[in-house]
Amino acid sequence: MMRRILICIALLWATMAPAQAHKPSDSYLTLNVNADQIDGQWDIALRDLDFAIGLDQNGDGQLTWDEVRGQHAAIAAYALQHLELATAHGACKVAVIEQLIDTHTDGAYNVLRFHAACPDPVATLTIAYHLFADLDPQHKGLLRIEHAGVTSTAIFDPDHARQALSMSAPDRFKQFSAYVKNGVWHIWIGYDHILFLLSLLLPAVLLGARGAPSASLKASFIDVLKVVTAFTLAHSLTLTLASLSVISLPSRWVESAIAASVVLAALNNLFPLFRGRRPLAAFAFGLIHGFGFASVLIDLGLPQGALLMSLFGFNLGVEIGQLSIVALFLPLAFLLRGTLFYRRLMTGGSALIALIAVVWLVERAFDLKVIST
Predict the structure, then answer these.
(1) What residues make up the domain containing 67?
(2) What is the value of pTM for the model shown?
(3) End of a domain among 139, 170, 201?
């Protein structure tokens, strides 16, 4: 049994440790359509470009403006090889105008500004997006289209790399469902959120400080419901406030606080820090986690009308992803609650989660790379 536990811990470390940053790989593509002309801006993370084409010429791990500027031609060529714009009468000719640097919530981005001339006025724009498809299957392209005062959105990934978007009648349901799916995916690959949630849920099938097995699945369910509801209410509140730019916090503070919340939630399973107040702790820390969720929508820069729809869809997706994790966890935990394996998982697993989160905290607070990926 101990050997199995050690194997599980090793696998958990191998999968979770490389997840240094909460925010996954995204790029932000904005298109302003006017008749047969398109003005575009494409924000692509420098860290992703460095991985793809090698921007760090001297290999010191730091990107300078001179290094990025020296690779402008390579950046433009690489980006445009992975983006196609077309109407019913053929491809639009794309030409780069300038390149700049901008800062998003998760770091520096190369800003590629371009102009596209299409063979006819754009009624339906077909976009083929393949950026980093061969390097990172989790990468997503977040699109915003402005046309005749109407804002439309779309999300590109390897499974939805080619999409035809109508300028006259945007498919609002399709846009909404895309953000629901993105919210689900966001929670599933948000290792810090998952470990925080699991740390709070592990004691749900145990009773008291001695950790006696709970005799009632109903009681365990009610305990889980309190924790999840508190976490949901809290992160939904700050997700909304941050996305609407009512409250703004520095990204490093938010990501560091999220890592610290994982440490405390895991340590609570070893030492009674909260003493039966896990729902209150879930609410307090959930306020911080909401700011982490909001980074996707903040960086897209949607106007309020389109933002509200995307916000609701994204938050719904986060809840679906979160509930799916709970639905898998609770029955399995209840079945194993009286076993030596679960008691060891409660202690050893919580200790490992705390250790991983401490590494994240050091990396995020001091901008270090403790674990090489």
Answers:
(1) 26-170
(2) 0.81
(3) 170
